[in-house]
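So, can you check?
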Amino acid sequence: MSFWVKTNYFIKKIFPNYVWDIPNNENKVFLTFDDGPIPEITEWTLEQLKKYDAKATFFCIGNNIEKYPEIFQKIIDDNHALGNHTFNHLNGWKNSTEDYIENVKLCQSQITNPKSHPSDSELAQQILNLFRPPYGRIKPSQSRILRKLGYKIIMWDILSYDFDQTITPEKCLDNVLKNVVNGSIIVFHDNVKAEQNLKYALPKTLAFLKEKGFVCAKID
C-alpha cells in the first residue's frame, strides 16, 4: 500500500498557519501521542519515555480525560505537554463549525478541570492551548476561530501509521527512522488500535534518537 508518511514541503507552504515542524538549533525532535489517556497503554508509554529521559506532547481526548483522570494526572506529573484533541475525536470535515468549536471547548474544560488532575502540580505550565485536529481534518472556518481563541494548530512532519493494523510493526518503525530530521513532529497514538505497532516501534525509536544525538522535547 502507499501512504503519506512524510509531510510534503508544498503542503506545509499551502497551510502556513499550521505547525508542521519546529526548526531549532538544539537537535530537538517532538514526539506526540494522540487519543489518550487509555488504561495501561498511556501508562506504558510514560514508562518508555521516562527510561530515555524523553519529553513528549499528549493530545488528549476530553472524554478519555473524564473517564481516566488518574492516568491524565500521570501525564501531568511526568511534566509532559498537554494538547486538545476534541472531546469526542471529531472529524472537522463532517461536523459544523459551531459543533466542532463547542467540542474543543468541552475538551479544554476537562484539561483544566481540577477533578481531572487532583494533585498540586505545575499544570499551568503544561496547558499551552495546543490543538491537533483528529484525522488531520479541519475546515478553514474552524481553524480560523481556534486560532483567534489562541490555539496553535499542531500537525506533523512524520506520521508513524501505528494505528494502521494492515502494516507491520517493522514498517511502522521504518516510517519514523527513515524520515526523522531535526525539528520533526512525530505522531504516535496511545490507543488500543495502535498498541501492537506502538509497543514495537516506540522503544526502538527512543533508542535510535538517543544514539543519533536527538533530544526528545515537548512542544511549547
Remarks:
- DSSP finds eight helices and eight strands in the chain.
- The first strand starts at residue 28 and ends at 34.
- The longest helix spans residues 195-211.
- The radius of gyration is 16 Å.
